[in-house]
Amino acid sequence: MKFDTLQQGITFYENYGRVSGFDTRLYSTKKRKSDGKISLKYCVCNKEGFRETPRLQSNCKKKRPITRMGCNARITLKLIND
């Protein structure tokens, strides 16, 4: 698919995720070295990847629930100059 702006692509994927039953988050951004403009954006499911093993802390009162479970839903948005 082609979008006029990267933001339109992000909005599309957020709406798609909402309809499909998952939340999204921005994962990474890459900028061009020549002009500093954003050339790539990665949007992923909010359950993508795995959380690092938590460090043992003596002042930790409540353990956080595991939220990342290795989901592979993602989209890569690339800026193309016509």
Notes on the protein architecture:
By secondary structure, the chain is α+β, with helices and mostly antiparallel strands. Helices cover 18% and strands 26% of the residues. It has 1 helix and 3 strands. The chain has one helix at residues 6-20, and strands spanning 24-31, 38-45, 74-78. Strands 1-2-3 form a 3-stranded antiparallel β-sheet, with helices on one face. A hairpin with a 6-residue loop joins strand 1 and strand 2. The two termini are 15 Å apart. The model has no long low-confidence stretch (mean pLDDT 79).
Write out key terms for the chains shown.
single chain, 82 residues, alpha+beta, three-stranded antiparallel sheet, 1 helix, 3 strands, 26% strand, extended
Helix content: 10-25%
Low-confidence stretches: none
The biggest beta sheet is recorded as: 3 strands, antiparallel
Q: How many beta-strand elements? A: 3
C-alpha geometry: extended
Mean pLDDT: 79
Strand content: 25-35%
Distance between the terminal alpha carbons, to the nearest Å?
15 Å
Number of helices: 1
Instruction: Give me the Rg, rounded.
Output: 17 Å
Major sheet strand order: 1-2-3
Secondary-structure element series: HEEE
Instruction: Please state the structural category.
Output: alpha+beta
